[in-house]
Amino acid sequence: MAGGSHQVDSGDIKIYRAGETPSRAYELISIVNGESCQRQFEGPKASNDDAIRELQTDAVQFKAHAIIGTQCFSLKPGADSICYSEVSCVGRAIQWRD
Asked: How many domains does the chain have?
């Protein structure tokens, strides 16, 4: 697989927001997503930061170096939802070409 075989930690995966472009060559390896859910009424609200951390965790399984085209959305929970507030993020996991 391109990009080497070193262990990837989720904190090492750079996030590029929609409209931002890396300055080096890369290849697309997967679509990834992350969710944040406020499960208790008095608990912490769902956040972009938590959803992005989950996005990075999802990208680890693909040995991604970065995530491009990252977009986050606040979702209105439905009547059958277990979340009081919810944020969903999606992006494209990439590896650098050497």
From this structure: 1
Q: Is 72 left (phi over 0), alpha (psi -120 to 50) or beta?
A: beta
pTM of the complete model: 0.83
Neighbours of 13 (CB within 10 A): 25
- Contact between 55 and 32 (Cβ < 8 Å): yes
Task: Give the strands of the sheet with 85-96, arranged side by side.
Answer: 14-17, 66-75, 85-96, 26-38
pLDDT interval class at 1 (50, 70, 90):
very low
CATH number of the domain at 66, please: 3.30.110.70
Place of tokens 């993020």: 89
In a domain, 4, yes or no: no
The pLDDT tens digits of the residues spanning 22-43 come to 999 999 999 999 999 999 999 9
Q: What pLDDT is attached to residue 77?
A: 82
Distance CA 76, CA 65 (A): 31
